[in-house]
Design a protein that fits this description.
By secondary structure, this protein is mostly beta strands. It folds into 2 domains: about 1-50; about 70-350, Beta Barrel (Lipocalin). Helix content is about 15%, strand content about 60%. It contains 2 helices and 12 strands; from the N terminus they run ααββββββββββββ. The chain has helices at about 1-45, 60-65; strands at about 70-85, 95-105, 110-125, 145-165, 170-195, 200-225, 235-260, 265-300, 305-320, 325, 330, 340-350. The protein has a 10-stranded antiparallel β-barrel with strand order 1-2-3-4-5-6-7-8-9-12. A two-stranded antiparallel sheet has the order 10-11. The radius of gyration is 44 Å and the shape is elongated. Mean pLDDT is about 75; it is low at about 1-10, about 50-70 and about 125-140.
């Protein structure tokens, strides 16, 4: 008991000393905390002013579907390489022709576009052997053609509205508008006829020119879809039809010599010089088909346009039905237009 009391007295007597030590430690701790807070305030003063961001305001460019603007101009050009073929005649050489187009995209759905295409051939010559077996014809029939030299010009100008749409993985455009078409041809023909029943023969030179001009409707359909493994590559298909009404202006200069057999000699019986000039109403049907591939690449985030390169197989048909015109004892070469073009095209452009 006495021992416990001695310990208690010792603790009580030492309490002021313990309290002074605790206060000294607390003073040191608070002084360190004050220094730390002062240093932090100094560092905060060195930082730039913070910008308060309202989470409710989100930049449109990152949330809107119109990351790339669907409005704007678009344009391109193609170079076509065609072999032409008349109905019933073999194919001729390969000719190149240019096609240019430009338009404006108003929205994701509607756009307008113009196109111009022109093909010109000159100095083409086709020579054939005169067939005496097929030359035994009535006097009013054409017997045969010795040689021809033909030049022609074909052009089309379109103004069209286009409506865009999506069906599963396919992007498509429905097309409708107006078309101006021109088909001009000039030819030099050496023709002849033999009638063995009356021992009569005739040979003539025909200089023929025709020019069709007309305006009509055009309609079509474009479709494309990306390849699964290469989304920048797309299948491309196009079908287009046009019905154009207009006038075909025809002019012929025909000069011929008719001879009759007299023994072993030919005696000139008649010399003809026949000029012909007239106009005929005509309906021209034009069909076009394209199939190939296109590579597209975004130009930049600000432009909202895609650059493309494409290669297509292409076919065109220009056909009409016009009665033939008789010239002298011959039936003139028909004024029908039965022209077919097939080959390929290479193009570049910018589209929305």
């Amino acid at each position: 008991m006495r021992c416990f009391m001695l310990v208690s007295i010792a603790l009580i007597s030492s309490y002021p000393l313990l309290e002074s030590n605790v206060r000294a430690d607390e003073q040191v701790s608070f002084e360190g905390l004050a220094d730390s807070v002062g240093s932090s305030e100094f560092e905060l003063q060195r930082l730039p002013e913070a910008t308060i961001v309202d989470d409710s305001v989100v930049p449109v460019a990152y949330t809107s579907s119109n990351v790339f603007s669907s409005r704007g101009w678009e344009a391109g050009m193609d170079t076509t390489y065609f072999t032409e073929r008349n109905a019933g005649t073999p194919a001729t050489n390969l000719f190149n022709a240019g096609r240019i187009w430009a338009g404006y995209q108003f929205s994701d759905v509607w756009s307008v576009r113009t196109r111009f295409w022109n093909l010109h051939t000159s100095g083409e010559a086709v020579e054939g052997q005169f067939d005496f077996n097929s030359a035994v014809l009535p006097p009013t029939g054409m017997a045969g053609v010795f040689a021809t030299g033909i030049s022609e010009s074909v052009s089309a100008f379109d103004l069209e509205a286009r409506r865009n749409g999506v069906l599963r993985n396919w992007d498509f455009e429905a097309i409708g508008g107006m078309r101006y078409a021109n088909y001009s041809q000039a030819g030099f023909f050496s023709i002849g006829r033999i009638d063995f029943d009356v021992d009569e023969a005739e040979i003539g030179l025909l200089n023929a020119r025709s020019k069709f001009d007309g305006v009509g409707l055009t309609f079509g359909f474009d479709a494309s879809r990306p390849l699964r493994s290469y989304p920048n590559l797309r299948w491309v298909a196009n079908l287009r039809g046009s019905v154009v009404g207009g006038s075909n202006h025809l002019s012929f200069d025909f000069n011929s010599v008719e001879a009759i057999a007299a023994g072993s000699e030919l005696v000139v019986n008649e010399v003809r010089a026949i000029p012909v000039s007239l106009s005929q109403s005509q309906a021209l049907w034009i069909g076009e088909a394209q199939l190939g591939m296109k590579y597209t690449r975004s130009m930049c985030h600000c432009a909202g346009a895609n650059f493309f390169v494409r290669g297509l197989f292409e076919f065109q048909s220009w056909t009409s039905d016009t009665p033939a015109i008789p010239i002298g004892s011959f039936t003139a070469i028909s004024a029908d237009i039965n022209q077919y073009f097939y080959g390929f095209s290479i193009g570049i452009g910018v589209e929305r």
